[in-house]
Design brief:
Length: 415
């Protein structure tokens, strides 16, 4: 903290004028911008300004231990000198000035940016009025002190206006595509989706199990009920269960998670109802095993070898057990269709399974098989968005090669 005192006689220089503080735009708050008009002596020979020093009131002291401050109270500015008030782990002392820093001659702007966490050393509270002064200093020790600025408080902005053209516009376009394709799908329009080998093999794999009179194993993986891959797997399970019900083939769904089991039971029950065979649904088709990873894998592997499953589906979230499951199914002679969004497990499925849905193909499969308008519309909108992105990338490469400056300015983003 700097305590201001009057400068020695003969060392007074022209002070900065029109000091004003405003909230810094396009941020999360906790920042103020201070501007001023340069001193008349800036760049004027003998009294040339060396630097501008920035002062702020009220003074903040902290962070302090929680037991020495009254937590949870709002920071307020009071006019009574010397009175101490609390704000979380900070204390505020009105009518005292802190020196924040300085900027070189010729500068007329200072960014007072602070932290937003109350235990940060540079914490700057929002919705709290601060005043600023600017002192022009010379090499000889002269100084000119400005008038205090009007009070200004920091606040956060919801929208970053300088990013609207790069983020806001694409979001609006993508939202319009999603809503448009969902509407088209609901009206019965046939939306083309690139066929995937793994999807096309589902009916073949179910038919093979029916001909061999051997069961089908469906593994939802080790994911939680709210994992995206698990949710996509529910949709595929519904399609598989409906086909199984139509062919009257046995279905086995061992589950790692009890909540996943409950959802899978309802999914399979509804699929049998949709197929017109609700009486053939059995509760023990979908059953809980254990939440111990490798104990679960051992149980599933035992089921494969004992029951000689004709078709195995591995669709969902998988970890180190992926290769163990796939290798065991390969030894049992099963047709295996796998899919996961865990990149580290995809190679193991590729080498040991007949068909593998890679990454987002798992989500596409749920839309393709489920034929749900919302899923189809979203998937189609994603394809269009990817196509537009590729087109912009090509445009950027061509523009850079041909030195089209307008292309560079189109993609330039400011922060």
């Amino acid at each position: 903290m700097a305590v201001m005192s009057a400068p020695p006689a003969g060392m007074v220089v022209a002070p900065p004028t029109e000091v004003r503080a405003v909230d810094a735009p396009n941020d999360h708050g906790h920042a103020l911008t201070v501007r001023w008009k340069l001193s008349a002596d800036d760049g004027q020979g003998q009294n040339n300004i060396l630097a501008y020093r920035i002062l702020r009131t009220p003074r903040l002291i902290g962070p302090l231990p929680m037991d020495s401050a009254k937590a949870g109270t709002d920071l307020q500015v009071f006019s009574s000198p010397g009175t101490i008030y609390n704000e979380g782990v900070w204390r505020i002392i009105p009518d005292q000035w802190d020196t924040l820093g300085q900027v070189p001659l010729g500068s007329s702007k200072y960014e007072n940016r602070g932290g937003k966490q109350r235990d940060a050393k540079d914490f700057l509270p929002d919705a709290t009025p601060f005043q600023y002064k600017v002192i022009a200093t010379t090499a000889a020790g002269g100084m000119g002190i400005s008038e205090a600025s009007a009070p200004a408080a920091a606040t956060g902005q919801i929208v970053h206006t300088s990013k609207l053209q790069y983020i806001g516009i694409p979001v609006v376009i993508f939202t319009a595509l999603v809503l448009g394709f969902i509407s088209a799908a609901k009206r019965g329009r046939e939306l083309y989706i690139r066929p995937l080998a793994g999807i096309g093999a589902v009916d073949e794999a179910i038919g093979r199990a029916t001909e061999m009179n051997r069961p089908i194993l469906y593994v939802l993986g080790l994911g939680a009920p709210d994992d995206i891959a698990t949710i996509a797997s529910y949709t595929i399970l519904s399609r598989v269960a409906k086909k199984v019900a139509e062919h009257r083939t046995e279905l086995l769904v061992p589950c790692y998670d009890a909540v996943v089991m409950s959802i899978a039971q309802e999914t399979v029950r509804q699929a049998y109802l949709d197929a017109g065979r609700p009486d053939e649904y059995k509760e023990d088709m979908v059953y809980f095993v254990t939440q111990e990873q490798f104990a679960y894998v051992a149980a599933v592997n035992g089921t494969m070898l004992r029951r000689q499953t004709a078709t195995n589906f591995y669709l969902g979230v998988f970890y180190a057990e992926s290769l163990i499951l796939a290798e065991t199914g390969s030894l049992a002679g099963s047709i295996q269709i796998s899919g996961t969004d865990r990149v580290t497990q995809i190679p193991f499925f590729i080498v040991a399974c007949d068909y593998t849905l890679i990454g987002e193909e798992l989500y596409a499969a749920s839309a393709y098989l489920g034929r749900e308008p919302k899923l189809l519309g979203t998937l189609k909108a994603q394809d269009w968005a990817k196509g537009m992105l590729i087109a912009f990338m090509i445009l950027g490469l061509v523009g850079a090669a041909l030195q089209w400056n307008w292309v560079g300015s189109l993609f330039r983003m400011s922060f």
